[in-house]
Write a structure and sequence with these properties.
By secondary structure, this protein is α+β, with helices and mostly antiparallel strands. It has helices spanning about 40-50, 75-85, and strands spanning about 1-10, 20-30, 55, 60-70, 90-95. The protein has a five-stranded mixed sheet.
Length: about 100
């Protein structure tokens, strides 16, 4: 199985004093070779430094995660296959020290 992590990306088009945040979409990240009995919450905690950014002008924060089968495709990947015949921008793969992939 693989762990699929979804983030929300936002940008501040205002200033620090008068912020104007706009959602810019989502990103997907995957960790392959995850077992259902793995400590998913601990894995997610260890991955946050690789994923999340939060400053006055840009934010990308984890909004959800799921365990999916190995051949699961995100909606973006499905659309790439449908319209381009291939996946040129797959979900970014992440690695955790101590996990063999």
């Amino acid at each position: 199985m693989k762990l699929l992590i979804t983030t929300q990306v936002r940008e501040n088009y205002g200033s620090i004093e008068n912020p104007h945040w706009k959602s810019k979409g989502v990103n997907h990240y995957v960790v392959k070779n995850v077992d259902e009995c793995d400590m998913i919450e601990v894995m997610l905690y260890r991955l946050r430094d690789q994923i999340e950014t939060d400053n006055p002008f840009f934010s990308e924060l984890v909004i959800g995660y799921n365990l999916e089968v190995d051949d699961y495709l995100t909606r973006d990947e499905q659309l790439q296959l449908e319209f381009d015949g291939k996946i040129t921008h797959p979900a970014q793969e992440l690695f955790i020290e101590g996990i063999t992939v």
